[in-house]
Amino acid sequence: MTLFPSSVPVSKRIFDLLLTILGGIIISPLLVILAVCVWLVHGSPVLFRQQRPGYRGKPFINYKFRTMTDARDPQGNLLPDKVRLTRLGRLLRSSSMDELPEILNVLRGEMSLVGPRPLLMQYLERYTPEQARRHTVLPGITGWAQINGRNALTWEEKFCLDVWYVDHWSLWLDIKILLLNFWKVLRREGISQPGHVSAEEFMGSPFSQALGSGEETNHHAG
User: Fold this and answer.
1) Which of 21, 59, 195, 203 has its CA 20 to 30 A from that of 220?
2) What local confidence, expressed as pLDDT, does residue 184 receive?
């Protein structure tokens, strides 16, 4: 745990800690209720843990509430996501409550309240140099791309918005994003891409593929 990561402006880190600690205390009863519901429907463990890239691509363990069961076919293979995603899981995702455990990542200094969403490790080698600039700041629970379309956007549009945030960050922008995020969550916009339970996998931008880079990249990533 790093109280004041060198990669984060002090004002941003203090803002994150104050809001996270205060918010965590306020929503602690909700977190307990959700944890019990997830345990009853999905079993143990309650939290979904997955390695994600953080600042400069350094891996960390990302925490979310589980939204799917471990149902398998007769051969022991996991069933498709859309089969394993439960009604509770859909509710958690549509309300973004599955991401509430990420406050642990914020407290540990691995994430910020606002920043580009942490995606999958395999995406790192698929980014163009410009897209990779999204990792020059801490990833966030919500971000500029999330309030401007979320999974209804193409990957290229998301990454363009992420880089815009990197170049234009301010504390007031973070406050604006957090306020707009509450409205977006209430309206449940851009939860998933058509035909997918979340976001389709990022396989690299057409430009980078045309250069023969072989860079490709995603799943329940945003």
Assistant:
1) 21
2) 79
**Position of tokens 């996998």?**
201
**Coil, strand or helix: which one is 180?**
helix
For residues 202 and 182, give the distance between their C-alpha atoms in angstroms, rounded to a whole number.
27
Residues in the chain: 222
Report the predicted TM-score, pTM, of the whole model to 2 decimal places: 0.85
The pLDDT, as a whole number, for residue 210 is 44
Distances (CA, A) of 14 to 55, 107, 129: 18, 11, 30
Residues sharing a CB contact under 8 Å with residue 215, sequence separation 6 or more, in sequence order:
125, 126, 127, 128, 204, 205, 208, 209
Radius of gyration of the chain (CA): 17
